[in-house]
Specification:
Helix content is 37%, strand content 19%. It has 14 helices and 14 strands. It is elongated.
C-alpha cells in the first residue's frame, strides 16, 4: 500500500505558469508536402513559437531545419509579435545547440549572436525531456497539424504562410484555450504585448558561422562560393561568418583576417589581391591593355617592344610582355627604355636579350655606328664679305 502511494507520488507534477512576456517556447513539426515556387512538391516543416503566458503563437512553413532557417524564423516571429520574450525554451536541435548538457550546453554561435542582438535568454531543455515545453508541443505543433493543416491538399508554401498568419490571429487567436479558458489574442493584446522586450533599432544581420580550411589556392569555400584569405594561413582552420551582405573570416585566435562582399551567385570567386603571394600576382593581373599603358609611360622603344610581343602569332606572348615590364622593378624605367632601344637596334627585341643587357649593365653604352654627342665637331661659321666692309658700315 505504501509502495503504491510512493509510485503515485513519483508521477505527480507541478504546472509552471509564467508572467506576461517572460517566456516563449519553440519547436519544429513535420507539415506534410507543399508546393515550392517552381510547383515542385517539397517536404515541409512548421516552425511554431508560442508565448507561454497568453498562448498566442506564430507559425511559418519552411523546407528545412538549417541554422539559417532557424534564425530567420525567430526574426519573423519577433516581428509578428512586435516584441521579444525574455526567454526562449527549446529542444536540443543542432541548429541551436551543438552539444546538449544539463549544466552547460554548447550553443550554436550564430544562435548566440541572435540572442545577444535581441537580448533574450536561451533555455534548452535537459536531454531527453521534451515534455518541459508542452505549451508548444501540444498546444502548438500538434494543434497546427490537427487544425490548420488538417485535410488540406498540397498548396503553394508562400500562400500557406499568408494563411497561417491569418489563422494565428483569427482561428487560433480567438478560440478559448483549453487550459487558460481565455482567448490568446485578447490576453496578448491587453497584457502580454507591452510586457515583451522592444525590438532593437538596428536590423539584425542574419549570419551563419562555419569552420573551414584555407586551401592552397588561398580560398575558403562558403555557401558554394569562394573567398580569399591571407596566404600565410594556408592549411589552417578558419572561422567564416556569413552575413546577408558581407562575409568575415577569422583566424583560429578569432582575429579578423578578411572582409568580403557576399558573392552574388554560386561558383563566384571574391578576391583581395593582398591575400595572394606577391610573386604570383604579376602573372595573375597582367593584361594586354595594361601592358600597353605601362609601356607608353616608359618610352617609345619599350612601347615598340611590347607591341611586337603582343602582336606575335601564333604563340601568345602576353606573359613575356609582362615579364619585360617587371624589369623596371629591379632596374628602373630609364634603363629598360635604353635596353629596349638597344634590342631593337640589333633586331632582337626578346626578353632574354633585354634582361641580359640590363644584367650586364651595357644598356648605357653607345650603339655601334652612332657617334657620342661629345665627339661631334661643331660647325665653323665664316663671313661671306670682308671684315673691313663690316667696320666701314659702322663708320669706323
Amino acid at each position: 500500500m505504501h509502495r503504491q502511494e510512493g509510485d503515485r507520488a513519483k508521477d505527480a507534477c507541478v504546472r509552471v505558469e509564467v508572467l506576461p512576456g517572460e517566456q516563449a517556447q519553440v519547436d519544429f513539426g513535420y507539415a506534410r508536402l507543399t508546393l515550392d515556387p517552381t510547383g515542385r512538391l517539397r517536404k515541409t516543416w512548421a516552425f511554431v513559437m508560442t508565448l507561454s503566458h497568453s498562448r498566442h503563437q506564430f507559425v511559418e512553413l519552411v523546407y528545412d531545419q538549417t541554422v539559417e532557417t532557424w534564425l530567420a524564423c525567430h526574426v519573423h516571429a519577433f516581428a509578428f509579435f512586435g516584441g521579444v520574450p525574455k526567454t526562449i525554451v527549446l529542444d536540443n536541435l543542432k541548429a541551436a545547440i551543438l552539444k546538449a548538457c544539463r549544466e552547460n550546453p554548447l550553443v550554436q554561435r550564430a544562435y548566440r549572436e541572435l540572442a545577444e542582438h535581441y537580448d533574450f535568454l536561451i533555455d534548452p531543455n535537459p536531454p531527453a525531456m521534451p515534455h518541459l515545453k508542452g505549451k508548444v508541443e501540444k498546444g502548438g505543433v500538434h494543434y497546427v497539424k490537427r487544425n490548420f493543416l488538417a485535410g488540406r491538399d498540397p498548396e503553394p508554401t508562400v500562400e500557406l504562410n499568408v494563411k497561417a498568419r491569418e489563422w494565428c490571429l483569427r482561428t487560433a487567436g480567438e478560440r478559448v484555450h483549453g487550459t487558460t479558458r481565455k482567448q490568446p489574442i485578447r490576453v496578448f493584446e491587453t497584457v502580454e504585448r507591452q510586457a515583451l522586450l522592444p525590438l532593437p533599432v538596428a536590423v539584425y544581420d542574419l549570419a551563419v558561422w562555419k569552420q573551414v580550411k584555407l586551401q592552397r589556392d588561398c580560398y575558403v569555400t562558403f555557401e558554394k562560393a569562394y573567398y580569399s584569405a591571407p596566404y600565410r594561413l594556408v592549411g589552417e582552420q578558419l572561422l567564416v561568418r556569413g552575413g546577408l551582405k558581407t562575409v568575415r573570416i577569422y583566424a583560429a585566435d578569432h582575429a579578423l583576417v578578411a572582409i568580403h562582399d557576399r558573392a552574388k551567385e554560386p561558383g563566384e570567386r571574391v578576391t583581395n589581391l593582398d591575400h595572394l603571394p606577391p610573386y604570383k600576382l604579376p602573372g595573375l593581373t597582367v593584361s594586354r591593355d595594361g601592358c600597353r599603358a605601362k609601356a607608353e609611360l616608359i618610352g617609345p622603344a619599350t612601347s615598340t617592344v611590347i607591341d611586337e610581343l603582343l602582336e606575335s602569332r601564333p604563340v601568345d606572348k602576353l606573359r613575356t610582355a609582362g615579364r619585360v615590364l617587371e624589369l623596371t622593378t629591379r632596374y628602373g624605367p630609364e634603363s629598360l627604355e635604353r635596353a629596349c632601344a638597344r634590342a631593337l637596334h640589333f633586331g632582337e627585341p626578346t626578353y632574354s636579350t633585354i634582361a641580359g643587357t640590363l644584367k650586364a649593365g651595357t644598356d648605357a653604352e653607345p650603339l655601334p655606328g652612332a657617334e657620342p654627342m661629345e665627339s661631334v665637331t661643331r660647325p665653323v661659321y665664316r663671313f661671306v664679305r670682308n671684315v673691313g666692309d663690316f667696320f666701314a658700315a659702322l663708320g669706323a
